[in-house]
# Entry
Amino acid sequence: MNAEPQNVLDYRGDHTIFLVWNFKKDQEIGAVFQRICALVINLNNSSDTRFPDSGAACVMGIGHDAWLRLGLPEPLPKELANFKPIVGEKHTAVATRGDLHFHLKGGSKSICYDMAASLGQLLDPVAVSVEEVHGFRYWDGRSILGFVDGTENPKGDKRAFFGLIGDSDPAYRGGSYLFVQKYIHDLKAFRALSIEEQEKVFGRSKENDIEMPDDQKPSNSHIALTNVGDDLKVIRDNLPFGNMSTNEMGTYFIAYASTFSTVKMMLDNMFIGSPPGNYDRLLDFSTPKTGTLFFVPTASFLKNIASGAPALEAIPADAGGEAGPRPSPGDGSLLIGSLKKESGYE
# Structure
């Protein structure tokens, strides 16, 4: 049976709230996490019924350390690890802690607000909210810098191919790697550039969103360095955010991918450069304040935890990978049963 993915492929959602929660120390978190899984499923089912045309969804990602603390299945997804800083000659992709990430999206702020409030009521006793970013669609999909964002996103059936894990990790088929960064822009410095110079930073025209020919595109332009090949893409769900009074204007970069190595390649090109030293010029005007890798398990995974069943079904040895995975002994906090026992593995 194919696992049901969480809603990472939908195009819709002009309003968002991005949330990062970290668990408190010395707290029993298993029971709350089980209720959170049930709530995420409930929020999505309710949104589909009440607002079927809004694209409303709640997508949850889990960080590496939280995965281990919760006693979730091992082996872990193959590329789930704590993100490590990427240090270039001038700019650094920082690494920050994140236990749970929630991507709340919909056709109105009201839907996102209510979902965030419901999650907060459950999490507040055992976790701390460390990031809350309210994103919005800016004109025709532009960032605050004025350029269209996400032009190279996969379309149609290709979204599932690039956004969801396939046979390379059969136990986690239908899941997705989620990488996020909160960027703050120096709008004053960027707007001081001529339009021509701004276009060289991005590698495309500002008004019409037309990519420069390769012989005219600067090698340190954003597009030149982040386009690592037509067979290596991710799903970007970036949205701008802004606070006029504090002059905190930026972009919440959010990428869903079938493999984190693709994202890592893009980040290396941006911050270290290709070749080294030829870093992404956009970083002279955009500073990352966060950087965290999460794993988005399938909706089926969440439903299993919510019901007290094993999170994953046993994967036969002839299904394209090793049999398993099995839950780690952990601290038994989730009480979701023993996959080892039920699948006959000893």
The first strand starts at residue 15 and ends at 23.
